[in-house]
């Protein structure tokens, strides 16, 4: 295959696929660059292969010509090209500013993703029910049956569009504080309790792939992390999480050919 005249061609013994693309304006080119530069990391996450520094797939951007009346010589730098130094404690480099959205306070209390996760690219968190709301409609509005996630994590949790057809993780109640937290939302007081929750993954590879997108956590084992969420009634959350855990565990055993 060699159609260089049309802007698509292979080089390097047909291991490197090249594209030459012309955009109408600079903003469109930057949006395309921002999306393309994430292809390697997204490829490994969805295929659950390789590590963050793998060289199985890579993207190189090389602007050939800028047809603009622009005299600046500034070079665009992507977060993937930033190398953190030992005394650099600023985490802001890890996230593209395009991913910034406004998340309301009540959602933040039960948000599984990191607030500035790249998975929130122009997309708000989604409401996720621990206990199936279609089968048990009486629990659909119970706030202790609800957590919030990006669409990406929700798909992993609910086995949506999953080739394996099984959830990739579940939640496990650990404990909660006796002291309530008062939060004011729309001039109304909301009472919630800090709740310690373990997230248990199907295997260590899934944990390593999904952890970078999750909120502040402590690694408990090769397949578990621990986070803090806030619920009005942590004991009710424990009930819903336990039922979800049991259903998920049964699916895992069935997938592995183990009789339940």
Strand content: 15-25%
Q: Which oligomeric state applies?
A: single chain
Number of helices: 6
Question: Any idea how many domains?
Answer: 2
Biggest sheet statistics? 4 strands, antiparallel
- Report the uncertain regions: 91-99
Extended strand count: 9
Describe the protein in words:
The protein has 260 residues and is of the alpha+beta class. It has 2 domains: 2-81, no CATH class; 99-255, no CATH class. Helix content is 23%, strand content 23%. It contains 6 helices and 9 strands; from the N terminus they run βββαααββαββαββα. The chain has helices at residues 26-36, 39-47, 105-108, 151-158, 204-210, 234-255, and strands at 2-3, 8-11, 16-19, 126-129, 146-149, 169-185, 188-201, 218-221, 224-231. The strands form 3 sheets. It has a 4-stranded antiparallel sheet with strand order 6-7-9-8. It has a 3-stranded antiparallel sheet with strand order 1-2-3, with no helix packed on it. A hairpin with a 2-residue loop joins β8 (218-221) and β9. Residues 91-99 have low confidence and may be disordered.
What keyword list fits this structure?
260 residues, alpha+beta, 2 domains, four-stranded antiparallel beta sheet, three-stranded antiparallel beta sheet
Task: List the topology elements.
Blueprint (H helix, E strand, L loop, with lengths): L1 E2 L4 E4 L4 E4 L6 H11 L2 H9 L57 H4 L17 E4 L16 E4 L1 H8 L10 E17 L2 E14 L2 H7 L7 E4 L2 E8 L2 H22 L5
Antiparallel strand pairs: 1-2, 2-3, 4-5, 6-7, 7-9, 8-9
